[in-house]
Write a structure and sequence with these properties.
Number of strands: 5
Distance between the termini: 66 Å
Strand order of the largest sheet: 2-1-5-4-3
Low-confidence stretches: none
Strand content: 5-15%
Mean pLDDT: 81
Length: 265
């Protein structure tokens, strides 16, 4: 029974730690994705503001990359007009780039007049990228910013590794603590079990000691056992005394006893 209790305790503990760890990983992933999208949107809107001040496209993009590049060195800025023609790209020559009208993030930004996003492999730089596109109504263009997911995935891998390490340490620590706690909690039951075994082997003097107020039902059960053991000890002692007296009586008799059966018929 005690073994089953410990196994159940261990299973519940392991499931709780695993569920907590998975939830933490999910939360970190969600927050990282949200931060990356907010970062790219902020960069795109800064370019839009710079263009509103009649700053050249290249200079506006460079300024955005100077400000946000400290956070993400792979920041990429692209400007696309209504026809899908690339007007500017910070990492490639716009003259060599294919039409971008049907890129999902760009088409979504044009259709909604707000923003669009996508995660896909870039055919231009051959990397998996996160794209955020912002529609600029004044110039009827889309300003798209993008970042490589490789750096973010590396950072996430480090965070996940840390979480898994903490989970393993917590599980081992709690299992060790669980062993001691289980022993402390089940000690009254173990004492009661040993006392019952001793009584079954003929030791009627055995009692369960060190009863604590917080033991609850086990304390009541132990007190009942002690009462039963005392009563049984008294019965056994009385029987032993009676047998001893009978032995003395029989030993003191010198004449044999004879029983006579009367025939009443």
């Amino acid at each position: 029974m005690l073994k089953r209790i410990y196994i159940l305790f261990t299973a519940i503990l392991a499931l709780a730690i695993i569920a907590t760890g998975l939830a933490a990983i999910q939360v970190v992933n969600t927050l990282a994705d949200h931060n990356n999208r907010s970062y790219l949107l902020s960069a795109a809107r800064l370019v839009s503001l710079e263009l509103s001040d009649d700053i050249p496209v290249e200079k506006a993009s460079q300024r955005a990359m100077e400000i946000f590049g400290a956070y993400e060195s792979s920041l990429r800025v692209t400007l696309v007009d209504r026809s899908g023609k690339v007007l500017y790209d910070s990492q490639a020559s716009q003259g060599e780039m294919e039409n971008h009208l049907f890129r999902p993030e760009i088409s979504s930004a044009f259709q909604t007049g707000e923003t669009g996003s996508a995660i896909r492999l870039s055919s231009t730089v051959n990397e998996r990228m996160l794209y955020m596109a912002v529609y600029d109504a004044k110039r009827d263009i889309v300003i798209r910013t993008a970042m490589s997911l490789s750096a973010g995935q590396a950072a996430m891998s480090g965070i996940i590794t840390t979480i898994l390490t903490v989970m393993a340490i917590a599980l081992i620590t709690l299992l060790i603590a669980g062993i001691f706690l289980t022993r402390i909690i089940t000690r009254p039951l173990i004492n009661l079990q040993k006392a019952a075994q001793a009584m079954a082997e003929g030791d009627y003097n055995v009692r369960v000691h060190n009863l604590r107020q917080g033991d609850g039902e086990v304390r009541v059960l132990s007190q009942t056992f002690n009462t039963m053991a005392a009563n049984l000890q008294k019965v056994v002692q009385d029987l032993a005394d009676k047998n001893a007296r009978l032995d003395i009586i029989f030993d003191s008799m010198t004449d044999p006893l004879m029983t006579v059966k009367a025939d009443l018929t």
